[in-house]
User: Fold these one by one.
Assistant:
Number 1:
Amino acid sequence: MSNCTFLTRHGTPRAVAAARDFSDPKDRGMAYECSLCGLCAAVCPEGLDPCALFLEVRRHDVASGTFDARPYRSILNYETLGRSRLFSRYELPEGCDTVFFPGCALPGTRPTVTSRLYRQLRQHVPSLGIVLTCCAKPSHDLGRTVHFRTAFERVLARFAAGGVKTVLTACPNCTRMFRQYGRGLSVLTVYEILNRHGVTETVAPGGGEISVHDPCPLRDHPEAHSAVRGLLTDLGYTQVEMPHRKKTTLCCGEGGAVGCIQPRNSRGWAELRRQESEGRPLVTYCAGCVHFLGQVTPTVHILDLIFRANGTPDKDFPVSKGPLTYLNRLLLKLRLMAMSVSGE
Ligand code: SF4
Ligand code: SF4
């Protein structure tokens, strides 16, 4: 229980299920305090899954019209803009059956890293396409099933029309959505591709001790865990594993949009991660995790270590924030359009 700020506050999953009446609006509010990280289900010998229960409560609130969207305005606007025509782009070159789907956070905070990564991936998959849009995970997690399905089906329809069979993801949330709802699409993370084929960009050699924070949406993706560790070994880092890792990793604090209503709880999860790292810098593979964990302990994205010169894990890699992230995404879209016209 001490590994989850929600359970520390409310008791075990069994106690929560037994003592609460989820038809009572007072108790239903609890469903929005869980980060939906999935750790309970991963470790429970009795197969209890509070995540599924809380997601169902959220879905019911939306369906019955009792969901209060006001605290989530900012994240929902982020999603709506991310999948708008202004920010979306499907670059599917001739013969393309595989696309790179960087998500929203990486292009917004690290547009140059995103471009370099795309260039690198194209060395391994020459007819690789790229798709800029949002996977709508925020709507999914808030129980807005119709919004999520509509948005996600639109992406799948474009993929089907363009002959796309494989999607390469950088964002753990997008990865999770494509694996869960992708209807047979093959889904690989970019970390698996980089680990399998190597990185030809000039990479500054690393060194010293670090710990890997596995993002919770990928707790059931051992291929990504191994790939990231393989890349870090090649970069020269000594990895010291934290007690909670891979399948039993802890939430960074970003999940389930908890931060919109309980920022202190959210920070509590990040604090647990800081304690387990015992002063070592954290390396992770999710822009959201870097943002959250970086508030309490030095944390770096593995793609910064690979694609930004002279990187070290305890260095503060500046990333774009706020409105600038939207500008970055527009500029990246324009750059991609120019590349496609010039055949670059
Ligand atoms: S935050 Fe994770 S560990 Fe805590 S109750 Fe929710 S699913 Fe379980
Ligand atoms: S899940 Fe991925 S694509 Fe969706 S909002 Fe988050 S970062 Fe963006």
Number 2:
Amino acid sequence: MLNFPCLDIARIATSEAVQSKGYGTAMIEKIFEVAHTVNERYITLEALIEHYHWYSKRNFIPLIEEEAIQSNQHGLVFMMADLYDEKLVDLYFDE
Ligand SMILES: CC(C)(COP(=O)(O)OP(=O)(O)OC[C@H]1O[C@@H](n2cnc3c(N)ncnc32)[C@H](O)[C@@H]1OP(=O)(O)O)[C@@H](O)C(=O)NCCC(=O)NCCS
């Protein structure tokens, strides 16, 4: 059992009528912005396996590698984004 502080996304959805217009991406970007603001390093979620690549393209990686291929028994893949920005930290200490 993993135990670390994170911002966990419980549900995210775009109305069917307006999918594939960038709203989902905008929501994810806003969530990343909120996580940065509250100084949260990790964002986690359980993605439906059919949306695995959508999240992969948005900086999420699977916590359990095998789930990316076959999901868990609920059709979900536990994924995480790490907001640690090495360049930003270096810049902070350089200045
Ligand atoms: C997963 C979900 C939230 C994505 O939302 P969305 O608003 O359709 O997401 P986006 O429009 O940002 O991205 C979808 C695709 O639209 C296309 N797209 C994005 N912006 C676009 C734009 N401005 N114009 C045209 N196409 C665009 C892209 O191909 C993109 O996919 P890709 O970048 O992975 O190739 C949505 O499919 C959904 O609500 N599904 C039902 C509920 C669900 O399954 N939730 C997730 C549980 S894990």
Number 3:
Amino acid sequence: MPILSIDGLEKIFSSANRKEKVLKGINLEITKGEITALTGASGSGKSTLLTIAAGLQKSTAGTIIFQNEALTDMNPRQVRAIRAKKFGFVFQHAHLVPFLTVQEQLELMMDTAELKWSKDRRNEEIKSILDLVDMWGHRDSYPGTLSGGGKQRVAIARAVVHKPEMLFADEPTASLDSKRSMEVMKLLRTLSRERNITVLMVTHEEETLEYADTIVQMKDGVIGKE
Ligand SMILES: Nc1ncnc2c1ncn2[C@@H]1O[C@H](COP(=O)(O)OP(=O)(O)OP(=O)(O)O)[C@@H](O)[C@H]1O
Ligand SMILES: [Mg+2]
């Protein structure tokens, strides 16, 4: 049973004088606990597919089933609840809140997910994930004082501190050098293996693909054959 199934997904962007079909009937099954990497040329529709699968924008046609429920049939409030509780997000840049410490960034995420965890449980989860990303020593630091790789590791910790089912990552290594990119990929693999988090990611970089369990090649709005 896939954790996420995408069937006949289409997306058309319309403006006053033009219509562009960006996704042209995508069928894709994401296996639980795996890392699936979307790759392909710029403009092929990778980010559009990722953000629709994650409930961040709506499709024009097609269905998305997450854990036996059709995301595409839900009202906006239901989609927001799934996003907040079951999904985590990482992007090319860390997008940390400048005036919150590392620990406070994670607390904010737990509040958003409306977890009923005790204070002790919250602290344990924060310690556990910050240890994993090797940032516990920086828990009282503000983002401005962290390195690029450090910021991205905090962003990953923040994306999974509420124990989501799925992590959606759009080019999470694109702003990092090769060594830091590999560290981030190892981290994603640890999250998938040890915490059973299913990862759907977009990547341009060939060397990151070796960490993926499944590679999906996109070409001009369709999934191509490798
Ligand atoms: N909000 C939008 N409105 C109109 N067109 C859009 C919008 N978002 C994306 N597009 C168009 O859809 C196509 C696919 O974009 P998308 O961002 O999904 O590509 P991508 O594969 O992620 O590219 P990249 O590797 O450069 O990030 C592009 O032609 C883009 O211009
Ligand atoms: Mg993109």
